[in-house]
Each structure stands twice: as C-alpha cells, then as structure tokens.
C-alpha cells in the first residue's frame, strides 16, 4: 500500500513535533514546517488544518501562533494517524463501477484482510517511538 502525499507530510510533521524537548508546549509555525520539509506553504496549511480538526495538533493564529502536538506522542499510534489521513475505503473499489465478479469475489476479502493487517502492524508503534531517531534529533538541534 502506498500512502498519499498528505499522509506522508502529516507523519513527517507529527514526527518533527514529537521530537521536540517539550512536544506539548513547543510551537512551530506552519511556514517553518513547510520550509523544513521543502513543500509549498499551502500544502502544509492543509495538513495542519486537517490534523487540527482531528485533534492531533493544536493550532494558534497570530503572533506567537503555530502548531504543537495535541496529544502526548506516546498515546498516538502510527496506525491511528494513517487511518485519519488516508482516504476511507479499502484497496479496491468494488461498488463504484459495475463488476460481474462482485457476487462471489474472494479477492476483495483477501485485500481487505491485508489492508487491516497493514494497520494492525502500524498500531504497534507510537509516534514517540518513531521520533527517537538520531536524524530527527539532529534536525531539532539545527532548527532550534
């Protein structure tokens, strides 16, 4: 399964926020995050907005505003994040277009099983676990 660019940016942003010394207090601006990950500001605004709606980040506008984690990184599972950021549905769409195999197709159930196994595997890892890498720590030191 390939994640969308939106999920990719969401995970990167959350990992960066989680790697801060005080992730529930340290504020990072959307512009700084966009520059850090070399993405358009408008893309990062969309990511921040959706993560805010989901309660994964807290957002504040104006002077001194920005983003910070909305929950403790230990409580955020990677599978939960991806479920929020990925479009809903399975690996294949059997309902939009007519399919003569739909009535007794075994492929859909096999793919659904694989899809759920993917999320179960991601659920084994917390954001805090994933944020403990030397490269993230170095990035935090460089960016302040």
Automatic annotation (TrEMBL):
Pfam families: Rrf2
InterPro entries found in the cross-reference section: Tscrpt_reg_Rrf2, WH-like_DNA-bd_sf, WH_DNA-bd_sf
Alphabetical UniProt keywords: DNA-binding
GO MF annotations, alphabetized: DNA binding; DNA-binding transcription factor activity
Any one cellular-component term (Gene Ontology): cytosol
Gene3D superfamilies: Winged helix-like DNA-binding domain superfamily/Winged helix DNA-binding domain
Protein name according to UniProt: Transcriptional regulator, BadM/Rrf2 family
């Amino acid at each position: 399964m390939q994640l969308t660019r939106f999920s990719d940016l969401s995970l990167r942003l959350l990992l960066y926020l989680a790697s801060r010394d005080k992730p529930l207090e340290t504020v990072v601006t959307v512009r700084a995050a966009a520059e850090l990950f070399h993405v358009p500001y408008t893309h990062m605004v969309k990511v921040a907005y959706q993560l805010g709606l989901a309660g994964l980040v807290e957002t504040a506008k104006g002077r001194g505003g920005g983003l910070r984690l909305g929950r403790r990184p230990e409580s955020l599972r990677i599978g939960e994040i991806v479920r929020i950021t990925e479009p809903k549905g399975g690996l294949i769409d059997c309902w939009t277009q007519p399919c003569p195999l739909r009535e007794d197709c075994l492929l859909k159930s096999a793919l659904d099983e694989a899809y759920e196994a993917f999320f179960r595997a991601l659920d084994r890892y917390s954001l805090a676990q994933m944020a403990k890498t030397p490269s993230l720590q170095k990035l935090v030191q460089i960016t302040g």
